[in-house]
Design brief:
The structure is a homodimer.
Chain A: H1 2-5, H2 23-40, H3 47-54, H4 58-64, H5 68-79, H6 91-105, H7 108-118, H8 123-150, H9 160-177, H10 184-194
Chain lengths: ~210, ~210
Amino acid sequence: MSSATGAKREAEPPMPTGRPRDPEVEKRVLNAVFALLTEKGYSGLRIDDVARVSGAAKTTIYRRWSSLPHLVVDTIAASMGNRDFAATDDPVADLRRVCVMLVESINADSLAAALDVHRQPEEELRTRYRQRIIEPPRKLLVDTLLRAKDAGLLRSRVAPTDLADLLIGGAIYRLAILHTPVDAAQIDAVIDEIVVAGPPAATVDGVQ
Amino acid sequence: MSSATGAKREAEPPMPTGRPRDPEVEKRVLNAVFALLTEKGYSGLRIDDVARVSGAAKTTIYRRWSSLPHLVVDTIAASMGNRDFAATDDPVADLRRVCVMLVESINADSLAAALDVHRQPEEELRTRYRQRIIEPPRKLLVDTLLRAKDAGLLRSRVAPTDLADLLIGGAIYRLAILHTPVDAAQIDAVIDEIVVAGPPAATVDGVQ
């Protein structure tokens, strides 16, 4: 959440007096929305309840979030934690790190709220959710696969976008539907299969 | 649905009089439940509404389905159509057919109802849903992958259960979340990658 809501305020000095926008209030509001989403779902979410549970004034909430879709998508993004990623010059190592980050960013409670969003017909909500929650990690994964491909390190002949959808879909299915999250060994096994193998064991000095 | 609800009555002769259990009534009830699930979700489903929309008496509904979870899981199963599968002695061809069947059996409306079920805490519902909707096609796919493996036709070294979860999860993600269903060429590309290649083109008579 910090990266999403804190960027604009980084350069500001501490303000000992007056009424600065309070990150603690934002956090309380997002926590309240998350609890209400989990309990009642999107269609049962009321701004009055958000104000009551968070203790924030409705005017404060509306000043920060212009609509319920903004508020809900920010809430789900915050629940997924930091998804920033710094690429290195080793696309295969990056691929493992991206996959681990994706698996760690989805958790059962966030997914329940996310699955609820996917049932809603509201266009603004779907569009914001897609732009903010779905596309950035998906693009990161596709780009990393393309970097591996450009470096001649991708063994798989499946299109990188289709590979990314298999990986993301598999992780979501395992957590949200089967309730047995993917583990590190399973991530490694899948990545070992789609990237070019290292030198055969016999050619490595001193190792059979 | 026919295979699930009609099996017991196959041997019975037509009954011109009396009050036989009417498959048309069952179908009307399942259609009503499906429409209500889509509109209101599981938590908004009321047996009174099912009776009103379907025109069936509540006693009729309770005689056929002992609980709401039974009724809802039967409804979702019916919306997915026939998922019976007859294996042949060609596990690779079977693998393609199973994957095509899986992709065809999930559709946007069924998935919306299914995603709603996954949000419910009700244990009976989750258990029935898993036994009836999730596990049979998953087991079929795993078994087919194992048959290909036993025949020496599986190139992939990823565990068959993990492969199955990638394939199913990828298909669900593409339809339910990205709204761009997997197409036949994409299924073929993925299966070509996980199974052993046919003979190289140069060794086939008359073909370069």
